[in-house]
């Protein structure tokens, strides 16, 4: 078992809230969610070198403003590196029809590399990192509770088109609420199985199939437990007068302040800069 | 005459497996629960005690017979919300009844369901968390709490709704001694403040707290009386595979040895008082 972590509940990164009390932390969660969406869209569309470098610099600045060490962002990028690399290879091999402009650099058999496809690869990698940074800042500066409250109150207008806003928010809340519970449950099961001779994480990391098979004896009991818990939870919710679709009052209400308006205005301006300014490269 | 808060009238319940076979769980149970009572429902596993408790706020509906809460029948769907507001219920598993990601929101959940305006909600949450001694935990996520603390939050979620009656369905069975003691203290205080308590349990030390005990065996009430009366019937309890509290057993043993020692004691401090009383009487001073 050397080197394998059984303590899953300690490694949960979801909702890794880091309270530093900075300006970003104190912003209205709705504003943060909206700004996040706007910025991500702008970054996903912007396809110039200069634009993306500016966006990356902006994302790094956000870490400083929110007083969160940049290492948190980098640790988020680390697990994404294999995906970035795979994506880069795929783009180089198969995107030459789309990005066939520019000067031809390599033309060997079916491999065709142009300056445009190089740009595509680098820009995608940058985008990836920018978006990871942004979402790190969002989740590190906003507690999961604030995020779910924010989502609920942003979606509230959709109530008028019969979208079950509250139910949707409740699903997210319950999902987040039970992540640590299930992590602990899984930990217990792994220990129980390991004590009866099952092996977890002993294979080398590149033996993906073996390591995937290792998890099967956990998945099914975990589903089983999840169902039992869900049944209990339904009873407890019903006992507290929960009726799906009923009107409910709302405990947490947010009120946007001046700094929130300024923040969102700034984000909109920055996003339009990325989208509209004709960057030379 | 005082009206009963909960009136159970010839209640029978069976789990239907399919059209032909069904398993009877409760057979013609009748009893009344009056405001301010502290009732313990005991019975060994499979006796139907948990099923019975789930009838008290309409989670289960009787197959025949009626359950009336302040005169409203649990079979009437439109009364259900009012009934559940009057009779709150705390369940066995501390983890499976907390809905929200922080304590405060979880207590608010029930209040949101019964459409309490946001302005008065805060006071109610303050009051409920104060009552269970969890005020300083209001911003904590539930997975940072111990089992006993989670159960206290669950109780807070119920009492914020200001029910007349609190039903505890084996609410302490997953807790350690300290967690259980905390819950019992909270429950005792609530009862002192006038709340009706119905506690389904198999811990006899909890039963000694109650003012009345109902013993269930194979879906029927076999004993109903004060804990003192019930624990006196030692052989009957053994027949029903039920324990009696250590204090009660000890009192019996001493009584066999010394006729003058009272045999109907059920609490630890009663034993102490009796020892002090007898010693003083015989010219020895203890304590």
UniProtKB/TrEMBL annotation, chain A:
Subcellular location, record wording: Membrane
Keywords in alphabetical order: Cell membrane, Membrane, Transmembrane, Transmembrane helix
Membrane topology: Multi-pass membrane protein
PANTHER family in alphabetical order: SLL0384 PROTEIN (PTHR34857)
InterPro entries linked to this entry: ABC/ECF_trnsptr_transmembrane (IPR003339), ECF_transporter_component (IPR051611)
Name the record gives this protein: Energy-coupling factor transporter transmembrane component T
Domain of life of the native organism: Bacteria
Entry keyword annotation includes Transcription: no
Parts of the chain that traverse the membrane: 33-65, 80-99, 120-143, 261-279
Gene source species: Fictibacillus terranigra
UniProtKB/TrEMBL annotation, chain B:
Major place of residence: membrane
The keyword ATP-binding belongs to this UniProt entry's keyword annotation: yes
Span of the signal peptide: none
One matching Pfam family: ABC_tran
Keywords recorded for this protein, A-Z: ATP-binding, Cell membrane, Membrane, Nucleotide-binding, Translocase, Transport
Subcellular location: Cell membrane
All copies of domain ABC transporter, residue ranges: 6-243
Alphabetized InterPro entries for the sequence: AAA+_ATPase, ABC_transporter-like_ATP-bd, ABC_transporter-like_CS, ABC_transpr_CbiO/EcfA_su, ECF_ABC_transporter_ATP-bd, EcfA_1, P-loop_NTPase
Topology in membrane: Peripheral membrane protein
Membership in a protein family: Belongs to the ABC transporter superfamily.
PANTHER family the record matches: ENERGY-COUPLING FACTOR TRANSPORTER ATP-BINDING PROTEIN ECFA1, HEAVY METAL TRANSPORTER
Protein name according to UniProt: Energy-coupling factor transporter ATPase
The species this protein was found in: Fictibacillus terranigra
């Amino acid at each position: 078992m050397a080197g394998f972590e059984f303590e899953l509940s300690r490694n949960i990164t979801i909702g890794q809230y880091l309270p530093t009390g900075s300006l970003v932390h104190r912003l209205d969660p709705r504003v943060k969610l909206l700004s996040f969406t706007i910025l991500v869209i702008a970054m996903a569309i912007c396809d110039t070198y200069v634009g993306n470098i500016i966006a990356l610099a902006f994302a790094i600045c956000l870490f400083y403003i929110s007083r969160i060490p940049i290492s948190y962002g980098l640790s988020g990028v680390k697990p994404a590196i294999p995906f970035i690399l795979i994506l880069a290879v795929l783009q180089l091999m198969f995107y030459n029809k789309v990005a066939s402009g520019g000067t031809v650099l390599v033309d060997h058999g079916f491999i065709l590399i142009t300056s445009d496809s190089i740009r595509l690869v680098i820009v995608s990698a940058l985008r990836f990192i920018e978006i990871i940074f942004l979402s790190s800042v969002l989740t590190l500066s906003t507690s999961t509770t604030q995020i779910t409250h924010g989502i609920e109150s942003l979606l509230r207008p959709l109530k008028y088109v019969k979208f079950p806003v509250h139910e949707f928010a409740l699903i997210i809340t319950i999902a987040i609420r039970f992540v640590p519970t299930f992590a602990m449950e899984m930990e217990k099961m792994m220990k129980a199985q390991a004590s009866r001779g099952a092996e977890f994480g002993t294979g080398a990391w590149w033996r993906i199939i073996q390591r995937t098979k290792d998890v099967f004896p956990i998945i099914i009991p975990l589903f089983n437990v999840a169902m039992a818990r869900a049944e209990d939870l339904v009873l407890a919710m019903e006992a507290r007068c929960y009726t799906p679709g009923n009107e409910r009052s709302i405990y947490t209400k947010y009120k946007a302040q001046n700094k929130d308006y300024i923040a969102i205005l700034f984000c909109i301006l920055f996003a339009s800069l990325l989208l509209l300014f004709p960057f030379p490269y | 005459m005082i009206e009963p808060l909960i009136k159970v009238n010839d209640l029978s319940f069976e789990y239907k497996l399919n059209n032909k076979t069904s398993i009877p769980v409760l057979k013609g149970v009748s009893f009344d629960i009056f405001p301010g009572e502290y009732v313990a429902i005991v019975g060994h596993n499979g006796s139907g005690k948990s099923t019975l408790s789930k009838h008290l706020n309409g989670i289960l509906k009787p197959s025949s017979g009626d359950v009336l809460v302040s005169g409203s029948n649990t079979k009437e769907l439109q009364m259900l919300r009012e009934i559940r507001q009057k009779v709150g219920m705390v369940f066995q598993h501390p983890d499976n009844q907390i809905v929200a990601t922080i304590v405060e929101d979880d207590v608010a959940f029930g209040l949101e369901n019964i459409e309490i305006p946001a302005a008065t909600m805060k006071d109610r949450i303050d009051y409920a968390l104060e009552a269970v001694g969890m005020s300083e935990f209001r911003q904590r996520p539930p997975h940072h709490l111990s089992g006993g603390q989670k159960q206290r939050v669950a109780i807070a979620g119920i009492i914020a709704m200001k029910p007349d009656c609190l039903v505890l369905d084996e609410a302490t069975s997953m807790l350690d001694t300290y967690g259980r003691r905390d819950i019992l203290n909270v429950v005792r205080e609530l009862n002192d403040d006038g709340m009706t308590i119905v506690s389904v349990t198999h811990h006899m030390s909890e039963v000694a707290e109650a003012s009345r005990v109902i013993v269930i065996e194979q879906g029927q009430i076999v004993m109903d009386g004060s804990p003192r009366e019930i624990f006196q019937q030692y052989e009957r309890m053994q027949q029903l595979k039920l324990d009696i509290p250590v204090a009660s057993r000890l009192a019996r043993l001493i009584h066999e040895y010394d006729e003058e020692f009272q045999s109907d004691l059920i609490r630890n401090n009663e034993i102490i008082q009796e020892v002090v009383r007898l010693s003083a009487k015989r010219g020895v001073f203890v304590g």
